[in-house]
Amino acid sequence: MSAYTVTPSRCHIDLAALRRNFFRLGNPASIMPVIKSDAYGHGLLPVARALDQAGARRFAVGTVDEGMALREAGLGQRIVPLLGAVSPQDWRTAAALDLTPLLTDFEDIEKAAACCPANRPLHVAVKCETGMNRLGFSADDLPALLESLRRFPHMTPVLALSHLSCADMPEEAAYTQAQIRLFADMCATLREAFPDMARSLGNSPAVLGLPETRYEVCRPGLALYGGNAFSGTGRETLGADLEWVMSVSAPILRVRRIKAGQSVSYGRAFVASCDATVAVVAAGYATGLARNLSNRTDLLINGRRVPQVGRVCMGMVMADVSALANVRAGDTAWILGGPAAPGQRPITAQEMADKLDTIPYEILCQMGSANPRVYS
Ligand SMILES: *Cc1c(COP(=O)(O)O)cnc(C)c1O
Question: In this structure, which CATH number among 2.40.37.10, 3.40.50.2300, 3.90.1150.10, 2.30.38.10 belongs to the domain 246-375?
Fold first, then answer.
């Protein structure tokens, strides 16, 4: 964040809820929390510190840079940057700071070998390709991989990982099972040569729904932040007790009366059908509230849901508060979450994502990176 703020809206991060989610996901000793992309918009360091206090023994970050930030914050856990080491500098940093870089192809082996520290082994993680077709060695590559690793005794593979592409989709169960079998076979081959290698497969939906994918190390991300990957499917109850960690608030700038027939905001996309009271709220697409939600979302004001009206602007958005008594400038509107009155539901990232035909991950990343964050 820069020295000035561009919005009075705030992203609230409830670290106690984060820790409760962490404990809900089973044995903490086997969890490698995924905190890439600034912890899905929740803030890398506060999230890592909270999970460190909760007993996290390792972290999966995105970039080597994120790993460096954890080391500079004094965190000594195993750290795996999931994007791999991208530049020569990344490899040097990973080796110097005892991060656990990914080997994703044969070129990586040479690069890793070139920066092994003199006085201790370089720990590496082997990325296995089982069906995502993104990064990693395929099963056919394993003999050559093992041959290469034998040439570099200072390099110690400590972790084998692969990623499931549709563990959240009950209709793709057969594909997921094939990925699980392939990973098990690849791990068996790798562990003949390196018996101490830990295995890591399960993401959030797998941690909730496929306990056999936990192995020594599982890698939930979304579930830690309260998202239920099974939302809208027949397996929804599996993640029903997770709590959202992020909420987003913005002050009401002005409350105005409008007459029937008057329109609100750009393009006259909302025209009042009767006299109405409209609250002007300091949030907009620059603060992560997608313009495609214009006239389609709700806001929570004084504990109650009210419809958002008119086009979402860059830094302002309007709500029809005619049904509420006593709304005043300075009151708080909740874009996501917030305290709901009895019988009222807060707006969730899942609900917004469903309306936008996207996933809650995207909502959290956008809201979290566009609003100043406050922690409790
Ligand atoms: C992002 C990511 C995860 C976590 O996925 P969730 O669905 O958020 O649990 C796990 N592994 C890899 C390789 C990832 O990129």
Answer: 2.40.37.10
- Annotated catalytic residue 266: yes
- The verdict on the CB of residue 364 being under 6 Å from ligand 1 is no
Domain with CATH 2.40.37.10 in the chain: 246-375
Q: Is the CB of 203 under 6 A from ligand 1?
A: yes
Read off the pLDDT of each residue in 335-347 and give the average, rounded to a whole number.
98
Measured in Å, residue 59 CA sits from the centre of ligand 1 at: 12
State if residue 219 touches ligand 1 by the CB under 6 angstroms criterion: yes
**CATH for the 31-239 domain, from 3.50.50.60, 3.40.50.720, 3.20.20.10, 3.40.50.1000:** 3.20.20.10
Report pLDDT for 374: 98
Residue corresponding to tokens 């972290």: 59
Distance in angstroms (rounded) separating the CA atoms of residues 60 and 77: 10
Q: How far apart are CA 281 and CA 333, in angstroms?
A: 7
Q: Could you read off the pLDDT of 157-206 as tens digits, one per residue?
A: 999 999 999 999 999 999 999 999 999 999 999 999 999 999 999 999 99
Atom of ligand 1 nearest to the CA of 82: 13
Long-range (24+ apart) CB contacts under 8 A made by 264-273 are: 264/309, 264/310, 264/318, 265/294, 265/309, 265/310, 265/311, 265/312, 265/313, 265/318, 266/310, 266/311, 266/313, 267/311, 269/294, 269/295, 269/310, 269/311, 270/295, 270/309, 270/310, 270/311, 270/318, 272/320
Check pLDDT > 80 for residue 265: yes
pLDDT digits (tens, 9 = 90+) for 36-48: 999 999 999 999 9
Q: Whole-model pTM?
A: 0.96
- Is the beta carbon of 227 within 6 A of some atom in ligand 1? no
